[in-house]
Design a protein that fits this description.
The chain is α/β, with parallel strands linked by helices. The protein is 29% helix and 26% strand. It is built from 5 helices and 8 strands. An 8-stranded mixed beta sheet has the order 1-2-8-7-3-6-5-4. Helix 1 crosses helix 2 (48-59). It is globular, with a radius of gyration of 15 Å.
Length: 168
């Protein structure tokens, strides 16, 4: 059974379609701040890029969003906050991160969304929010927030308030 965007518990949400995952991203965008790091995790095709599309749209950047699988990084800086979208899928070793540009912006300027970053979380940041998107049906997804660090805790709480308020 397909569900619309739904808050199941603090930090746990259900998405019934790619539009719901994008809407979730739209609700995340207003609470993002310079230096925020979100590690997007989940299998191929679960909606990590759709989440990023929603974030970009809500920030006011109208450029197309695609997964930067081969470019490794896409910059979306036409909105209220610069967004650096990384896809680390093709990287095999932590030392390869140096060539991506991630260390130039990570934790300093804008917000960073890192697809497949869980493999390198120890090398990337001490304070980050993991956003896990899991397939629970053909179109259904579960989205889980797992904060690591004080700012990530505050960010997760702010996202939960944003989603709860929007769905009330």
């Amino acid at each position: 059974m397909t569900v619309a965007l739904e808050r199941r518990a603090p930090g746990r949400y259900a998405s019934g379609a790619q539009e719901d995952t994008e809407r979730f991203g739209e609700l995340v965008a207003p609470v993002l701040e310079d230096g925020d790091v979100l590690i997007l995790t989940g299998g191929l095709g679960v909606g990590k890029t759709h989440f990023t599309k929603g974030v970009c749209r809500a920030l006011g950047d109208d450029l197309p969003v695609t997964s930067p699988t081969f470019a490794l990084m896409a910059v979306h800086d036409r909105g209220k906050l610069p967004l650096f979208h990384f896809d680390l899928y093709r990287l095999e070793h932590a030392w390869e991160l140096e060539d991506t540009g991630v260390y130039d912006v990570l934790g300093y300027e804008g917000a960073c969304l890192l697809e497949w970053g869980e493999r390198f979380s120890d090398e990337l940041a001490d304070d980050y929010l993991t956003v896990t998107i899991s397939r629970t049906g053909e179109a259904d997804r579960e989205i889980a927030l797992d904060p690591h660090g004080a700012r990530a805790e505050r960010l997760a709480a702010a996202i939960d308030r944003s989603v709860a308020d929007a769905l009330a």
